[in-house]
Structures are given as structure tokens and as C-alpha cells.
Amino acid sequence: MPGITVSPINPSRPEFGAFVDHVDLDNLSDAGFEALRNALYTYNVICIKSQSNLSPKGQAELTRRFDPEAMSYGHGKTIDAKRSILHPDLKTVPHQPEVQIIGNGFVSEYEGLKNFTLKHPHHRTFHKTVIPDDQDLDFTRFYRWHIDAAMYGGLQPPLVTSLLAVKVPTGRTQTVLYDDGSNDTLRVPLGTTAFVSGYTMFENLSAEQKEFVLTTQVEYAPHPYVWISTAKSRPDGLGMMSEGKEVPVDELPPIENATDVQIQPMAWKNPVTGRFALQIHPSVVRKIHLRDGSVIGDLAKVREIVHDLQRPGIAPELVYAHDWQEGDLVLFNNHGVLHSVVGAFDKDEVRLFRQCNLAASRPPVGPEVRG
Ligand SMILES: [Fe+2]
């Protein structure tokens, strides 16, 4: 059997995104897995084609192989909270609870679930401003740039997320509008998933910004996805507007342990290349902890600092927008990329994906602590 082959998706960005071929996921030796893992951490988004036969169990086992000590779904049971903004977007595979079903439209039967309707997240439910209805099928927005992570309690950000395209409507493209005063736009396939590299985001910073990022930590909100449930996003999907609309902390579910509030480094280290990614979940960041021990708690200021660091990294030429085909299995390094749902479907356009990630067995690896 020939060994795994890896080929960059975009020759002009050979370090970001790769197709992996000649990989038999049903019979993946330790050496084969090691080659797959190296490809993942080198290219950060990898696609294996023609995996329609992969079972939910096989998908969960493959995802777990990147972090064998990890057990539960990345958000644990936190998405069950009715006020969580994640609640409507995910349906759990009954016999494989680490695997979620996402998509759009009516499905009569899938993996033991019957007669259910999936709803592709639409920016109108999350952004402060929206694209007018009569332009909605031609133009769209990045819904929400994020890391797949609960960012709360003992649930550390998953190392890897897998996405399997089971059913994909095709035939249209849309234009993403940044609508942030920049005139930036990006033509994308319908229902793409957009990725940007946290490594490029970091490497393009000034020397002064890099020093700041390497020595600064971010505090996330308690119950983050309930906290922002009443607030609205910026038009570029990269963080929230600061209008004082977040759920007040004393109206959130109780914080059981002070350590449930997560404080994470801004820079996360790649275990294979040693590179640092600027890796901040922009919509749920709440405070910034500086090297000298002082804390920036002014939310508007915190968000401006984070947006100034991240926005250059989502420039159109830096976005990889995957053109999904049925059977595509995409694995991405969730400690090294940000990603976003994109697009608006008609209600008749049926899309079905399976997603799996697992709360990591360890926190992200930050820089060595420097004095
Ligand atoms: Fe995600």
C-alpha cells in the first residue's frame, strides 16, 4: 500500500491547508496516524476526500486519537443550557454523544434521529447589522470567528475538530462582505467554512505586538455563551459590539469554583512546528491580564485591543474557504486556527454535516513564562 501523500490545497499559500490522500482510516497504523498528525500540525487544516462511509464511531475514534486522554464532547453538557447561543445549532448523535449533527433543512432520518429540521446559523440572529433580505442569497457575512471551545470550567479547548460533509447543496457562490469600513469582500462557495491561520496572524504582528501577545493572558467570561446571548456581533464576525448588552454576571448561572473562569495565554504553541498562533476567542473574551499583574477590565477597551491584533489576520487573501463536497472529512488544528460558519441557505437547501471534538486533556501550551 502506498504511504500517505500530502499536497497543499493552495499553491500560493503552501503552508496552510492540504489534501491528504492514500489514507485508510479503517486500518490506520500508528505510523500512518503519525503521518496524518504531522500533516495536520504542519498545514493546520487537512481534507481527506471520499469518507462518506466513515461511521460516527469511526469519526469519534479518529478524533480521540489526537488526544487519547480526552473523553467528553468539547462543550460537555453546556450546550444544553437553554440560554446558550450554541443550543439551537447542534443535535447530538444518540449513540455517539461526542458527535454532533449540524446543517440546514429538513431531514427525515439520520443515525436514529427522525423528522428533524436543521438550521444553518444566520448572521441576522447574531450581528448588530444585517444584509437586507433581498440581497441575502448573494451576499453574506462571516457568522462568528471562533475556536471550538467551552472556555469555561474544566473543559479545555479541543485539540482537533473533525467535520464530515454528508450532504452538501451546490451550485451557488456568495460574496462575503466585511462591512467594517474596509470595503473588503471575499467570493466564497455556498456554505463554506472559512479558516484563518493563527500562526500567520501572529507572525504578521509588529515586534512590539508580538512581545505583548507572548506576555499577556486573556480571561474569558463565566458561562461565556450565555453571557453574550443578549449582545450582538461586529459585522466582520470578529468579536462583539460593546453596548453593555451582555447578561450581567450576577444573572448568569452560579460560578461553582473560582477556577471555572478560564485564563488562557494569547499565544498557543504548535506541538510539531513550535510556532506560536495568536489564539483568542474574540466574542467571549472579557479581561486582559498584563505581564505586570495588572488587569484591563474595561470591556470596550479589551475588545478593541483584541480586534486590533486579530483583524489583519482575516484579510481576504489570508482566508481559506473550503469548497465542500460530499464525503470531505476536514480535520483542523483547533489550537492554531480560527474558523467561521459562512453563508445563508434557502430553507429547501439541505445540508448535513457531522462535527466532533473533545475537551482536551491539557490546557493550550503558552510561551515560557518570562519575568
Ligand atoms: Fe466551530
Structure description:
This protein has one domain (5-357): Clavaminate synthase-like (Double-stranded beta-helix, 4-Layer Sandwich), CATH 3.60.130. It is built from six helices and 21 strands. It has helices at 30-43, 56-65, 198-203, 207-214, 224-227, 299-310; strands at 5-8, 18-21, 45-48, 91-93, 96-110, 113-118, 139-140, 160-167, 173-177, 185-189, 193-197, 217-220, 263-265, 267-269, 276-278, 285-289, 295-296, 320-322, 329-333, 337-341, 351-357. The strands form five sheets. Strands 1, 2, 3, 4, 5, 6, 8, 19 and 21 form a nine-stranded mixed β-sheet that branches. The longest helix is centred in the N-terminal third of the chain and has 14 residues, at 30-43. The N and C termini lie far apart (52 Å). Fe (ii) ion binds next to loops. Belongs to the TfdA dioxygenase family. Keywords: Dioxygenase, Iron, Metal-binding, Oxidoreductase. GO terms for molecular function: dioxygenase activity; metal ion binding.
The end-to-end span amounts to: 52 Å
| H/E element order | EEHEHEEEEEEEEHHEHEEEEEHEEEE
**How does the overall form come out from the CA principal axes?**
globular
CATH architecture: 4-Layer Sandwich
Q: What's the multimeric state?
A: single chain
User: What name does CATH use for the topology?
Assistant: Double-stranded beta-helix
Rg on CA atoms, Å: 20 Å
CATH class descriptor name: Alpha Beta
InterPro entries: TauD-like_sf (IPR042098), TauD/TfdA-like (IPR003819), TfdA_dioxygenase (IPR051178)
Cofactor: Fe(2+)
GO molecular function: dioxygenase activity; metal ion binding
Keywords: Dioxygenase, Iron, Metal-binding, Oxidoreductase
